């Protein structure tokens, strides 16, 4: 009702209204404000849509859903449809009358089984009326994985032989081939008349090179999902004619506005704009069907403006509806064989009706997800000369073998990770600990502190007791996620404890200082800081700490004062100071040589404004690539992700791209 009221007020008073959406990421801005104004999709082809682009601070899928809700609310208010709202002339179009408009649907096949089995499935789909089929080659399931791209090519060859050349065939490699593997595949399918292959190579910088060498048409997909700025700026390097299509997932690129921008660019450059789904329900697919119709109309507008012949209609990647065992709607999507056209199609009018009359089928809802309960407990670990009672926080399913352990930086706590853990916990068990001297963890010496020699709390010692803690929590392997000091601990464990650690996400981390004099200087500096912390107290120490250049970007964050206030909760100042001194990067033995022997996948995450750690990440990346090798050769051993609009504290300043990066890392390394 609030959305409807805002829309009515906006229309009546001819002013922009602001919809405030409460954030689910506590460490980010409290509210996301989205101005309601005419999207660039309504501008003429001569207008420059780049001026209308704006980056969002919410998940792309959330933005897409919000845009869908707003557009359909406007449509309901005007007794119209989403297509008519996006393209006001639709109802009056002579070429595409509203009630007869339909969208061709592309079928989707996973290439499991033998080439003959896949070909039989394709033939069945053709018999049902599908004229376009996409095959997922390079399947990731452990059972069906084909180690040789020539085996994937055999599937394409067999399918083409079975269905003939009147059927459009598309292939999707999902960036799983090296450049050399992709070229081998292409040499075997040259006579298969592929409409295109999606993302054949792992490195997007090799896409044009692949087009030039093989002549095989390519479509962009995952490349579009990695856009973090104006999409037109990134797309400028893909004007080559070998890039034949863009596969646009609105929920991945951030909604219909961004999708329309990308599609218009493609249409202006003579490329296909294919709308694709990520296993949405009938509600989402119905909106996509209407949006696909809009893109067909937009394409006609573009062709007229450029004095070009209209492009033929294309099949859109909405065949995922067949993969859902149950749906959230009572009324199912009407996708059928049209005897007049001979194509498998979806009615735009029926799709609009389903959205307008949508009702949730509560019979298929197994569980409503709200805030998942965080499990908190203390776990004691004894070491030589001391013990630590760790404060542990857990969220996510305890079953399964996908376990992430989060390690905070100096002055932080496990609570720093909670927004990210909640987002990732859908597919993983997430565990955060308060490191010694921090938060609610308790450090205790054995013997009398005044007389006994205090044991060290070096990075190596802390890593060992954290490893013991992890052994007590879970018997299997874990992936470590560490920030700053926690990143150094995570990296040390990933390089030295591969029996227990299967990967590491290193945020703003370093393997140590190479130069001995630099280490000596840093030891002295951190020892002085530790003395100052004990002498002047935590509050004055925080003022001095966060005044340093490293935190320039964090100081501009709207929650900076709240973040600093949370650092006052540490009770054991003596142990905190000891950690600062003992775990100083000046005392840590450098791990640069160890990087060359890295055996587990490592993701390096750095902030766009953190120049120092960007340079360190590049050096780490080069060192790992000199010798690091994963046991799974299909997985890149090391990658770098740069988080936009933030500095050193990436997980606090801009958590959404960090969440996305961690999810993509898990997808690649574990197939989550």
TrEMBL record:
What SUPFAM superfamilies does this protein's entry cite?
Answer: alpha/beta-Hydrolases, Enolase C-terminal domain-like
Question: SMART domains per the record?
Answer: MR_MLE (SM00922)
Q: Supply the alphabetized keyword list.
A: Lyase, Menaquinone biosynthesis
Q: Which residues form the signal peptide?
A: none
Give GO MF terms, alphabetically: 2-succinyl-6-hydroxy-2,4-cyclohexadiene-1-carboxylate synthase activity; hydrolase activity
Cite a single Pfam family from the UniProt record.
MR_MLE_C
Domain Mandelate racemase/muconate lactonizing enzyme C-terminal: residue ranges: 115-217
Q: Biological process GO terms, please?
A: amino acid catabolic process; menaquinone biosynthetic process
InterPro entries in UniProt: AB_hydrolase_1, AB_hydrolase_fold, Enolase-like_C_sf, Enolase_C-like, Mandel_Rmase/mucon_lact_enz_CS, Mandelate_racemase_C, SHCHC_synthase_MenH
Q: Quote the protein name from its UniProt record.
A: 2-oxoglutarate decarboxylase/hydro-lyase/magnesium ion-binding protein
**The organism of origin for this protein:** Actinidia rufa
